[in-house]
Design brief:
mainly alpha; 3-stranded antiparallel sheet; 8 helices; 3 strands; flat
Amino acid sequence: MSRRSGVLEFAVLGLLRESPMHGYELRKRLNTSLGVFRAFSYGSLYPCLKTLVSNGWLIEESGSASQDALAAPLSGRRAKIVYRLTAAGKERFEELLAHTGPDAWEDEHFGVRFAFFGQTSRDVRMRVLEGRRSRLEERLDKMRAAMARTRERLDDYTLELQRHGMESVEREVRWLNELIESERAGRDQRDGTAGQDRAIERDEDRPPQQEQDQSGDADGPPRHRGGSRPDPSDDTTK
């Protein structure tokens, strides 16, 4: 499977996890929600859908009248097919969602992965963000080294174009730094709250202490109310 078809598979499964859709609506969501698919056509989408159906990850159903109206730009039977995620398809998406390899950091994959961060665990989000930052920092070092070697031979416009590219990468690195710090702060806050909750639970499970006399010492014998301890030498019964 090519990198392009792999990211399309991930996006289709992710969108269909939200709700069933027919081809027209699915392509519209790919174009508007996930910018990397702006240039995608039905010629790319439908072979992917057919593959997902054959793998048992999607099923085809007949669409309702309202869905058919949305699919009016299409002709023929395709406009009436609604694609629904199966249980196996949900498992496949969860498997892809947990993947944190280098592919998740690349330009095409990262944007799509980020679009589904709301469904991704915190640990996976952190690994993807840190991997992306590391990849961009490597790219930035190479760009700076290349500019240092060739800047004397470049005209002003080519040099300005390279600077623009570097600034774009630098902005994304700063943005990633902010996201990573936000993720860490959220995790630390939750860990602190969890620690407080555990302390409260321990206090609630602790048996109540015996009630002390208000005028008594915690570690000594009780005092008589309203006065000091009696003097043993003062025997009033004699």
